[in-house]
Design goal:
This protein is an alpha+beta fold. The strands form five sheets. Strands 4, 8, 9, 10, 11 and 12 form a six-stranded antiparallel sheet that branches. The protein has three domains: 185 residues, no CATH class; 158 residues, no CATH class; 83 residues, no CATH class. The longest helix has 26 residues. The protein is built from 15 helices and 14 strands.
Length: 497
């Protein structure tokens, strides 16, 4: 066990590391020169129950890879093996290529794994260097905490540590390490790995671990594997509705980037929508547009099918009929996602009742925004101030659309819908303000923090984090919630991000 002021890490007897060498490789992180603190998240520290003085020199060494890892007392952490489909193609063996688990913390009955991203090569790094750069680390740190503040299931980020290590990507950049936090980093790809290679005892062992630690209610089901698949299908449906509702694009929805707990996992070339375009592709490396915004829900369903295939050996009985309960479990996604999405849209429209015409009203609003490339976040936020009284001009809304008459026609329907439930504008605005954020982590906001950080100034990371932790409040700086500057259109993020 590592015990520093306010920071104690151990390996749990129930944790993933107990599964043994078929599932992971034990190794130490590679040290870095000149480690220093870059940023930290107090909400994440509170989640872990850390003391106020947890950022000690010893903790800095540990979280920079310079003080050993893991809770076994031997200075060793571990990296797990998995496989997966990348851009729809089987990629074979993958694994934690630049992530190293260093132990667990238990707080108030919850257990959290800590993982260093960028701590050096592992046996699964393939041709990579196992490192992360300051640019990508800032983006992941800020977005992890921003998503949590939005109420979207996600892995968390405790801190960033920097160093003088030079790392080559498109250019030579400064290395950094993010300390990631989650109840588990298990992926669809973990199951795919053992199923694909015919390692059925290990597949069963992994399955038992997931049931024991994360889904005990599935054990007593008629077909536990199908019950687990239905559970993750419903969690994934809810997560996709959350993403779509705030205009979030993951960018790399490979099966090895899909969480078995329904968390947003692996922040790389993500993006939040500026001008609304359902076909927008945030990942510059995604040349075919597989992971475009509008395709995310269907990609998630495709990935769930891949998981179902991996779970088939766990279904008892005739192999010829093993797929039947799993296919039935997958139907829960087809049922859940449309309902979850409509629920999010009703809330964003400020509606408290359900009427048959709501789906068409919401769809036509999205089509109107898409036709005019209207700023997604600003349009939803301004809609909260819609005046439903007869003859109200709603100029602030009309100004967002080139074809004002088209907005007026939709607004007339919206007004009638609000009147149908005797909606109070004052109360509706409160509801809509609570679900339509004023601020999301747009690329240009992250870029501003990155540019200063490259000069050694980390104050913008701290300032921006405070804003992102209160996304539904109007920020002090209006520009944080304003339209993106013209230069933002030139920003590109790719798989190296």
């Amino acid at each position: 066990m590592h015990v520093f002021p306010g920071l104690a890490l151990a390996r749990s007897a129930q944790g993933y590391s107990r599964l043994g060498p078929d599932f992971l490789t034990e190794l130490s992180p590679e040290p870095v020169p000149g480690p220093h603190w870059v940023a930290h998240s107090e909400p994440c520290a509170d989640l872990l129950g850390l003391a106020a003085d947890w950022r000690s020199p010893e903790a800095l060494a540990l979280l920079s890879g310079n003080g050993g890892g893991g809770g076994a007392g031997n200075g060793i952490g571990w990296a797990s093996v998995y496989s997966g489909h990348q851009f729809g193609v089987w990629a074979g063996q993958l694994g934690d290529g630049r992530a190293l688990h260093i132990g667990e913390i238990e707080n108030k009955g919850q257990r959290f794994e800590l993982q260093l991203k960028g701590a050096g090569r592992t046996p699964y790094s393939r041709m990579g260097d196992g490192r992360a750069v300051l640019r990508s680390s800032i983006r992941e740190f800020l977005c992890s905490e921003a998503m949590a503040a939005l109420g979207i299931p996600t892995t968390r980020a405790l801190c960033i540590t920097g160093s003088s290590l030079r790392v080559r990507r498109e250019d030579v950049e400064t290395g950094a390490i993010v300390t990631r936090v989650a109840p588990s980093f298990l992926r669809f790809g973990h199951f795919e790995h053992f199923a694909h290679h015919g390692l059925l005892p290990q597949l069963q062992q992994l399955f038992e671990h997931v049931l024991d630690q994360h889904a005990p209610e599935c054990r007593d089901a008629a077909v536990p594997a199908a019950a687990l698949l239905e559970r993750i299908s419903r969690q994934t449906a809810s997560l996709m509705a959350d993403w779509q509702a705030v205009g979030f694009m993951h960018g790399v929805m490979n099966t090895d980037n899909m969480s078995m707990l329904g968390l947003t996992l692996d922040y790389g070339p993500f993006g939040f929508m500026d001008g609304f375009d359902p076909g927008h592709v945030c990942n510059h490396s995604d040349h075919q547009g597989r992971y475009a915004y509008a395709r995310q829900p269907n990609v998630a369903f495709w990935n769930l099918h891949a998981l179902a295939q991996a779970l088939m050996p766990l279904v008892p009985g005739d192999p010829e009929t093993a797929s039947e309960p799993l296919l039935a479990a997958l139907e829960s996604y087809r049922e859940a996602f449309p309902a979850e999405m409509l629920g999010r849209l009703r809330a964003k429209l400020g509606l408290v009742s359900s009427l048959p015409q709501d789906r068409e009203l919401a769809d036509d609003w999205l089509k109107l925004m898409a036709a005019h490339h209207t700023d997604y976040t600003i349009a939803w936020r301004r809609l909260g101030s819609f005046d439903s009284s007869a003859g109200a001009s709603n100029e602030a809304m009309r100004d967002l659309f080139v074809d004002r008459e088209a907005f007026d026609a939709w607004a007339q329907r919206y007004r009638a819908r609000l009147q149908a439930e005797a909606s109070s504008d004052v109360e509706r605005r409160k509801r809509m303000t609570a679900v339509n954020p004023a601020v999301v982590l747009r690329n240009h906001l992250a870029e501003g923090a990155i540019r200063l950080a490259r000069e050694g100034d980390f104050t913008e990371i701290e300032r921006l984090l405070k804003v992102l932790l209160r996304p539904f409040d109007e920020p002090v700086l209006a520009s944080d919630a304003g339209f993106p500057p013209d230069w933002a259109a030139q920003l590109e993020v790719s798989c190296s991000s």
